[in-house]
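Ops channel
N.P.: pipeline sanity check, posting one input/output pair.
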């Protein structure tokens, strides 16, 4: 029987990377990502996401074990498919690892992982992570070939990249927005049919989250940049609670 919105209350993972970005802009210890993770937990977040980039532009190596020790929430460790990041994940064994594409010159993650073109390499790469007990997620575009490849390589989860949808919302391009939304609905349905858990993220805010949260197969949204920006004005707890409210409204 197909799942309904009511059957799958959405989890909210809060990405705290840009607290570390602000800390690193000046050096020192403040603001502390651990404190942000604890506040997110207090506000009702279901998980903490952090991305240890190869250039350490925000989260640094010491942040991962510090946050894991401080909070009781599941940790979603975003990482590139490199030997260095694999070794770090195997050493700390976070609840989940999310494999993302990464280029040094990009401002943020651009597009989804090209799983369909790298099934052999990615299958071998994620096998030890899964064997160590981490749930393996692949950050992909809402594309049928990528979803099928994610299932083929042994991932347990796909996180759908909703950045294009969010960009079209911001531009006011309703036709392109709706076309992208249809792709997301279709990809989520296919992923669930293939036995994958479905997450989504990248660029979500109060104005655009509703149609994404209404996708019935989704079980988790990962949101960071907007929440931390909104926290400048209303505080992190208030920003997270309002996002949760918007997600719940969409499910209703």
């Amino acid at each position: 029987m197909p799942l309904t919105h009511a059957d799958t209350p959405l989890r909210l993972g809060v990405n705290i990377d840009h607290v570390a970005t602000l800390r690193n802009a000046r050096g020192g210890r403040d603001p502390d990502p651990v404190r942000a993770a604890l506040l997110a937990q207090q506000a009702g977040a279901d998980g903490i996401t952090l991305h240890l980039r190869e250039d350490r532009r925000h989260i640094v190596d010491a942040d991962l074990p510090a946050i894991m020790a401080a909070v009781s929430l599941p940790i979603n460790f975003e990482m590139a498919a490199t030997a260095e990041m694999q070794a770090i994940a195997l050493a700390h064994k976070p609840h989940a690892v999310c494999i993302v594409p990464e280029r040094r010159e990009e401002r943020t993650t651009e597009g989804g992982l090209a799983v369909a073109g790298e099934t052999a390499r990615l299958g071998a790469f994620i096998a030890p992570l899964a064997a160590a007990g981490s749930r393996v997620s692949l950050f992909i575009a809402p594309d049928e070939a990528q979803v099928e490849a994610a299932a083929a390589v042994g991932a347990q989860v796909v996180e759908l990249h909703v950045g294009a949808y969010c960009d079209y919302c911001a531009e006011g391009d309703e036709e392109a927005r709706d076309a992208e939304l249809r792709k997301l609905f279709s990809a989520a349905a296919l992923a669930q049919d293939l036995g994958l858990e479905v997450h989504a993220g990248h660029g979500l805010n109060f104005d655009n989250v509703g149609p994404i949260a209404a996708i019935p197969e989704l079980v988790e949204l990962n949101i960071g940049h907007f929440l931390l920006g909104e926290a400048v004005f209303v505080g992190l707890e208030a920003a997270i609670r309002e996002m949760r409210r918007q997600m719940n409204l969409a499910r209703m």
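N.P.: looks fine end to end. Confidence is low (pLDDT under 50) at residues 1-6, 105-109.
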